[in-house]
Every structure is written in structure tokens, then in C-alpha cells.
Amino acid sequence: MSKIFMPVFTVAEWGGLHEYALAAADMLKRAGHEVLFAGTPGRVTDVARSMKISTLDVDWHDSSGSTMSSAVQWDADLVFAQPFRSRVLGMAVAAESNIPFVPMFHGYAHDSAFVWHERAARILTTSPSISAMLVRYCFVPASKLQVIPNGAPSHLLELESREPEANADHLSIALVSRLSHDKFGMIEAALEVVASVRDVYDGHITLDVVGDGPLRYEFDYHLHRGVRDDERCTVEMHGWMDPAEVPAILSEAFVSVGAGRSALQSVALGTPVYGAGARASIGIPDVEQIDAAVSCNFGDYLPVGRLAEPLSPRDLLDPGRYSDLAKSGRELVRLKYTQDRTDEILRVALTEVL
């Protein structure tokens, strides 16, 4: 089998990119490949090592060339790079070693692909919306692009789906995200959900925020400020939790606010999502619109087509409508967006390049 060098630049302690990259590395290892996972020292490389994946700790500000030298000496057959500084490192290693270079796009920035796309053997993205952007604004040939979508762990589909209780005395709204500038729109989205529901619901509402990042204190301030005049509403800032604990938060929530990977996990658990991504707040998609919401990472990019009018959060207080939305979302994930399916698409894509 082959040796795959996988540089992963991250800024936050944890997030969807971390989970995607680790899942990819684990899949490649299980497929018999040797993987060198190069990342920021800390939680992400610690988890990689716990998965028995070889790691290379990277100081992304080091200009001495020691990291590149180590990577070149490892003698890889392919570079599979994540965005930004990891893309720069990966492209340099691929050029020096004369091996194929495959970059991955997860989110809202084009990473100046118009300058370097000709050097890539293939370019992977997590959604059709990102691919459309790269074609339109960076002139990347559509034939070079392939979508490898986010995937939800299959076991989430086996967990019991929550059914809302009309007379419940407590209701949770979950916001699960890295708390950074590109997620700032989630604040307004979360407060909109709270405002819509509390007008027709007499119980207590908790806004459970799971995640951390450079704008933690801004999120904390604005969310608390938004509910300060209503004693029935509270905000709980949980920080990063063990990924194994997050499904319980999402499953117990009446609705979640998010984008990307956490939003897809919410759908897999049967919890409707108010999509609030880096480029658009798309609201709560109805049954026919869930797939379109997934295709734009729940607002990380504008949808390729026009989305229909979203549901109001208060519409979900109708148990029948809630149940239909939950079941339809889970079935969509089962058919198209499980981690097992994503793993196989990625495995085939990288094998073709090799």
C-alpha cells in the first residue's frame, strides 16, 4: 500500500475540520495505507496518536524548513492536504518529492485557488456549493473537482429520536460550533429561535452552547444580553466537550443551530437544524429542502439553487410536523451521508490519483 502525507492546519482546539481529517486518516489507515498526520501540537495530534496514526508536530510559524525536510524524508507517495497553511506545506512537499497533490476544501474561503489549482491532481470539497464557487471565482475546471461530503457516524441513526412533548416544562436549543468570526451569524440565529419559541411556549428555555474559539467571550456576551430580559431563558456555555458526549446534547435539543458537520449530526439524530453558516442563515429547511441545506453546508455557502421559505421554529411545536421532519432527515442521512459512505468515496478518489 501507499504512504500518504496529510498536513492539517487548525486554529481552534476542536471543530468539524478536526473530526473530518481524523476520520479520513483513520479510514486510510484501515485501508492499509501508511499515514503521516502533520498538525498543530495538542488535542488533534493527541487523538491521532491514540488512533495509532503516525504524527508530525508542526510549528506553522517556523520558517527554518525543518518540517518540510522531515516530510520529504518520509518519502510519501501522495499529499492529501487540508486548507491554508497545510495546503502551502503540502504543495511544497509534493513539488519537492514529485508526487501527486490533493487539497481539500471544508469551508467558506477559496484559499487563492486561482493561483495554484493547476498544480493539484484533484481538488476535493465537502459540498457542491464550494465546488461551484471554485469554478466561478477561481476558474477551477469542474472536471478536477469532486465532492466528498461530511458524514455522520452510522450509530447515530440507531439512537432513539427525540419526540417533543407539548406540555414539557423545559426546552433546550443547542448551538454546537467553533466560536470564530465565520460563525458569528449563529448568535442572531440562536436568538431568533429563542424569540420565536418563547412567544408560544410557557416553559423554561436553555440555550446550550457547545464549543470554543477566539470569539467565545463575544458569543457569551451577546447571547446573555439577548435573553437577559426574560427570566425563563438561560444560556449555558459548555466549552468543548468530548465528541462522544455531543450527540446527547443534540438529541435532547428541540432544535439545533449550526452548520457543516455538527448540523449533519443533528439531522442524523432527528433534531431539526436552523442552518446558520458563514455566508447565509438559511433557517429551518422543510422536508423537501433538507438535502439542499446539506449541499450548502447549512449556509456555509449560498445554495446552488433557491431554497424555499424555511419553517418557523414555532412550527416545530406541532408534534406531527416535527416527527415528519425528523424522520425524513434521518432517512436522507442513511441513504447519502453516513461516514461509511463518505469514507468509501474518499478512498476511491485518492486511490484513483495514486
Sheet with most strands: strand arrangement: 3-2-1-4-5-6-7
Annotation field: number of helices:
13
CATH topology of the largest domain: Rossmann fold
What is the overall silhouette?
globular
The first-level CATH class of the largest domain is given as Alpha Beta
* Largest β-sheet summary: 7 strands, parallel
Q: Into which percent range does the helicity of residues fall?
A: 25-40%
Structural account:
The protein has helices at 16-30, 43-50, 66-73, 85-97, 113-116, 128-138, 185-198, 216-227, 246-252, 260-268, 290-295, 319-336, 339-353, and strands at residues 3-8, 34-39, 54-57, 78-81, 101-105, 123-125, 145-147, 170-176, 204-210, 233-239, 255-258, 273-276, 281-283. It has 13 helices and 13 strands. α1 crosses α13 and α3 packs across α4. The protein folds into 2 domains: 3-151 and 339-353, Rossmann fold, CATH 3.40.50; 154-336, Glycogen Phosphorylase B (Rossmann fold), CATH 3.40.50.2000. It is α/β, with parallel strands linked by helices and 354 residues long. It is globular. Helix content is 40%, strand content 18%. It starts with a strand and ends with a helix. The strands form 2 sheets. It has a 7-stranded parallel β-sheet with strand order 3-2-1-4-5-6-7, with helices on both faces. The longest helix is centred in the C-terminal third of the chain and has 18 residues, at 319-336.
